[in-house]
Amino acid sequence: MERSDEDRAVGEIVDRLARLFPQIPPAEVAETVSASRPEFDAVPIRDFVPLFVERSAKHKLRGWPPTSS
Question: What is the DSSP track for 4-66?
Answer without folding.
Answer: HHHHHHHHHHHHHHHHH-TTS-HHHHHHHHHHHGGGGTT-S-GGGHHHHHHHHHHHHHHTPSP
